[in-house]
Amino acid sequence: MKHLEKITFPADLRQLKTADLPQLAKEIRAFIIDIVAAKEGHLGASLGVVELTIALHYVYNTPIDKLIWDVGHQAYVHKILTGRKNLFETNRQMGGISGFPNRSESEYDDFGTGHSSTSISAILGMALASKIKGNNERQHIAVIGDASIASGMAFEGLNHAGVTDTNVLIILNDNAIGIDPSVGALKKYLTNVKKGTAKEENIFECLNFAYSGPIDGHDIPVLIAELERLKTVKGPKLLHIITTKGKGLLQAETDQVTYHAPGKFDKLTGDLIPKPTREGPPKYQDVFGYSIVELALNNKNIIGITPAMPTGSSLKYMMEQIPERAFDVGIAEQHAVTMAAGMAIEGLVPFCNIYSTFLQRAYDQVIHDVALQKLPVIFCLDRAGLVGQDGATHHGVYDIAYLRCIPNMIIFAPMNEVELRNIMFTAQLGLEGPIAIRYPRGRGVSLNWQQPFQKITIGTAVELQKGTKIAVLSLGHIGNSVSELLKDFDSSKKIGHYNIRFVKPLDEKMLEMILKEYEHIITIEDGSKIGGMGSAVLEFANRLGSNKKIKIFGIDDTFIEHGTVEELQAMCHIDVLSLKNYINELY
Ligand SMILES: Cc1ncc(C[n+]2csc(CCOP(=O)(O)OP(=O)(O)O)c2C)c(N)n1
Ligand SMILES: CC(=O)[C@@H](O)[C@H](O)COP(=O)(O)O
Ligand SMILES: [Mg+2]
């Protein structure tokens, strides 16, 4: 690490000779591989931009010049070169640095990212601000991937930037893959550009950008020369670079999907380190993936839709088996929702699988295109609740609050795999409006999950244990921890446990009984307290004129950073211990 050890900030990097930079690139790759192999995180994207990041900080006067990393999962090199080399081993851990650029972490992180396709709008905002303030010297750069630039929001930014005379440089980092292979007509176009077979007019030139490339994004001298040239070109510019995701680690280059975020691996061989084998329950994702195939084989109207997450959501099983009815639409959550609306109008049964956090981007489409028109779109909200190391940008903790206020919307959270399957079965039988089914990242609880489908009556909760004094009302998977905890309490049957499962419509009959019969009511959920299930229960109790004390366990009015799910649950006091302590006070 003869060069890297001398670098703390970009000013140190700028002391190196250009000829030393390829060696520095090697050292940075080894450094990232060494740490990510043990600590986990996003790998392939950062390995692909080592040379680009070095060149950018070498040529530009960061942090005076502004630099935004779209999505931000590829910013590890940037972090290492901007004062966080010694903190890098804390990446994504509780109390450690974030896996994404974060303005509160460094003056070099010009914009917080995590959700894709925001970089062009953000950098344009900064470039326009420079103009308005009369600063004509500052440079403004956004780096965006080939999958992220295909999103609607990126196009909105390009469309505007093209008619400004701002000093913006968009670097299109084209590695021909997102998490899964990139899709769509733009991907085909970019492939043609690289092969030299594209139609004569260049799409970016047509949008009024000075286009250059494609150039080799791993050739540092070429990159530096082009960036130096572009510094002198006025107006909006787009530089198209070609890189290899996972560059420098054979397995990561070969199996780019797995090595996007591979978990632990052997830093020398690159081989994945298998998780300790434990015959365990399946992941909710796989239950979704297998069940939609099972249902779709019987119901020819079923469609599967994912915006760019076929592997993460397990919709890939349907894409493999029934490709004509399963669509990866790219990073296009808004389009996914409205396309599902169109299909529902035609009598199809669309299952639109979107991570809870990413559905935030399609909020208006959920209201205006789906709910207002009472269309039976089935939203499967994956990664609901606290997701762990991805942190504040990715926790799926707002969905209940933002969906509950929408008329016509049914909201369901399965407590286990069987409930997930049964609600999917129920939903495809036909509903009069949309339903959102929210479930967490990771494993469920049932080994015997592949049971025959059974219809669930909409708006019914389940009494899991009858009690006399304290009622615990849980929503979704967290209810399993409650069940476990209640085994610790004596058999006097003071505590009742209810699986609420439908946040909307609530099981009012059951709630009325609970409010009447119990002295204390506790609600627990892995979502925001404001507007969540507990709130719904409080509102109902108020309508009923009940004066029972209702204690809400949920996530406070603050953003939750990164850590393991267990650490974060404890921090948010929605863990077993916090609940136990509270029950002990009442007992
Ligand atoms: C709005 C949104 N949808 C989905 C994702 C999940 N996601 C993270 S990275 C990624 C692929 C990005 O691909 P690309 O822009 O080509 O960058 P690369 O990983 O190839 O560097 C996706 C779909 C996200 N972060 N934000
Ligand atoms: C950067 C990004 O948004 C994705 O890579 C995300 O981290 C995937 O999350 P899962 O690992 O839960 O699929
Ligand atoms: Mg890409």
TrEMBL record:
The superkingdom of the source organism is Bacteria
Provide this UniProt record's keywords sorted from A to Z.
Answer: Isoprene biosynthesis, Magnesium, Metal-binding, Thiamine biosynthesis, Thiamine pyrophosphate, Transferase
- Enzyme Commission no: 2.2.1.7
Give a Pfam family name: Transketolase_C
Pathway(s) of this molecule:
Metabolic intermediate biosynthesis; 1-deoxy-D-xylulose 5-phosphate biosynthesis; 1-deoxy-D-xylulose 5-phosphate from D-glyceraldehyde 3-phosphate and pyruvate: step 1/1
**MF annotations from Gene Ontology:** 1-deoxy-D-xylulose-5-phosphate synthase activity
InterPro entries assigned to the protein according to its UniProt record, in alphabetical order: Dxylulose-5-P_synthase, THDP-binding, Transketo_C/PFOR_II, Transketolase-like_Pyr-bd, Transketolase_BS, Transketolase_C
- Entry-linked SUPFAM superfamilies: Thiamin diphosphate-binding fold (THDP-binding), TK C-terminal domain-like
Name the top EC class. transferase
Cofactor remark: Binds 1 Mg(2+) ion per subunit. Binds 1 thiamine pyrophosphate per subunit.
Q: Which cofactor(s) does the record list?
A: Mg(2+); thiamine diphosphate
Q: Which reaction does it catalyse?
A: D-glyceraldehyde 3-phosphate + pyruvate + H(+) = 1-deoxy-D-xylulose 5-phosphate + CO2
The record lists Mg(2+) as bound by 146, 175
**Domain Transketolase-like pyrimidine-binding: where?**
282-447
Binding residues for thiamine diphosphate: 73, 114-116, 147-148, 175, 333
Which PANTHER family would you find in this protein's record? 1-D-DEOXYXYLULOSE 5-PHOSPHATE SYNTHASE-RELATED (PTHR43322), 1-DEOXY-D-XYLULOSE-5-PHOSPHATE SYNTHASE, CHLOROPLASTIC (PTHR43322:SF5)
Summary of subunit composition and partner proteins = Homodimer.
The UniProt family comment states: Belongs to the transketolase family. DXPS subfamily.
Q: What the protein does?
A: Catalyzes the acyloin condensation reaction between C atoms 2 and 3 of pyruvate and glyceraldehyde 3-phosphate to yield 1-deoxy-D-xylulose-5-phosphate (DXP).
Q: Tell me the HAMAP family matching this sequence.
A: DXP_synth
- What is the protein name stated in its UniProt record? 1-deoxy-D-xylulose-5-phosphate synthase
Where does this protein come from, organism-wise? Answer: Sediminicola luteus
Instruction: Please name the taxonomic classification of the source.
Output: Bacteria, Pseudomonadati, Bacteroidota, Flavobacteriia, Flavobacteriales
